[in-house]
Amino acid sequence: MASEVQIFEGALDKGLEGIVACSTAVSSIQGNTLNYRGYTIENLAEKSTFEEVIYLLWNDKLPTAEELTQFKAQLVSEMELPADFINVLKNLPTQNVHPMAWLRTAVSLLAHWDKDANDMDTAAFKRKSLRLTAKMGTIVCAFEAIRNKRELLAPKKDKSMAWNFMYMLKGTEPKADHVKVFDTCLILHADHELNCSAFATRVTASSLSDLHSAIVSAIGALKGPLHGGANEQVMIMLKKIGTIEKAQAFVKDALQAKEKVMGIGHRVYKNGDPRAAILRKMSEKMTAEIGEPIWYQMSALIDDTMFSEKGLMPNVDFYSATVYYCMGIPTDVYTPIFAVSRIAGWCAHAQEQYANNRIYRPRGKWVGKSGLTK
Ligand code: ACO
Prior knowledge:
The chain contains 16 helices and three strands. It has 374 residues and is an all-alpha fold. It has two domains: 27-224 and 330-355, Orthogonal Bundle (Citrate Synthase, domain 1); 230-326, CATH 1.10.230.10. α2 runs parallel beside α16, α3 (65-77) packs across α6 (122-147) and α6 runs parallel beside α7 (161-170). Acetyl coenzyme *A binds at residues 15, 195, 226-228, 230, 260-267, 310, 312, 315-317.
C-alpha cells in the first residue's frame, strides 16, 4: 500500500514565507547580497551589459567576446515583430487599457506566430527564449506607438537592446547617458531568486505547459502592485504628495490607516535591498541633472520616515520610479519595463524547471463545511 504524503502546515496563510520551494542555480539572495549565477549585482551593474547578463543567466557563464558579439547579433535580429502580428496589435484597444494587460495579451498572441510554440525540445526552447526576450521590448514600444498614433520604428541592428528600446519607445535617438542608466536598470531587474513572477513561471512550466504560457503567467503576476506594479504606484504617490513638506505626514497617515507605502518593504531583505541602494544614487544624480531634485528629496524623506516609523526599507521599485521619470518614460510603462528585463530571468527559471521537473501540487488545509447533503 502506498504511504500517505506527509502534510506540512508551516507556511499556512503566510504566503509561503520562509519556504524553500525548489533548488535553483539562477540567482540567490544571501543576506543583503543578490547574485546572478555567482556574480554580485553590484559587480554586474558596474561592469556588464544587459545582453551579457541574459547570456549569463541562460548559460551559467559569462560569454567570451566572440560569443557576446554573436549573441547580441542574434538578439537584435529577433527584435522586429511580424507584420501580421503588428496589424492584429493595431486593432487592440489602448485607451483605458493598462500596458501590462496589453502586454499579457500580446505575448499570448505572439505564440501563434512562433513555429516552435508547442515544441518542448531543448533547442526549440532556446529559440523561443531568444525570440521572446528580444521582442518583449518591441511589444511595449508598439503599445506606446499605437496609442500615440505613430508608426513603430524598426530597431537598429548595430545598437544595444537598451538603446533600441529607448529609441522605439520615444521615436527619437536616445542620449548616451540615458542608455547607460537604462541598461543598468535592465541588469538590476533581470532576476531575483524565487520572486512571485518567477514562481508563477515555474508553476506553469511544471505542468509541462509551453514557454509562452509560462511567460503569460509571469506577466500576470508581475502586474500586481505588491510585485512589479509598485514602481508605477511610487511615481503616482510622489506626484500626489507633491511637496517635500507633505511627505512625512503622508507616510504617518498611511501607516495609521494601515495602508501600504509603495516601493517599501520586502519579504526577504530586512536590512535593505541592494538594488535600491544602486538606484538611490542614480535617482539623486538624475533628478539633480534635470533640475527637479524634489523627487529624490521627497523619496529620501519617505525612505527615512518609513525606516524610523516601521523599520522598513525601500525595494527595487522605490527609486527606479524617479530614475524612469527623469528619462521621460510614461508612468504606466514602468512596470512593462520590469517585464522587458525580467523575461531573462523567467526564461532561465523555465529552463531550470523543465530540466528537473516535477509538477507543483501543494495541499490546501480544509476549513470549509463538511458532511452536507442536498
Ligand atoms: N507600507 C506600510 N507597511 C508595510 C509595508 C509598506 N510598504 N510593507 C510591509 N508593511 C508592514 C505590514 O503592514 C506589516 O505590518 P504589521 O506587522 O504591523 O501588520 C508588516 O510590515 C509585514 O508586512 P507584510 O505585508 O506581511 O510583508 P510581506 O513580506 O508579506 O510583503 C511586500 C512584502 C509585499 C513587498 C510588502 O512589503 C509590500 O506590500 N510593499 C509595498 C508594495 C511593494 O513595494 N511591492 C514591491 C516589492 S519588490 C518586488 O516585488 C519587485
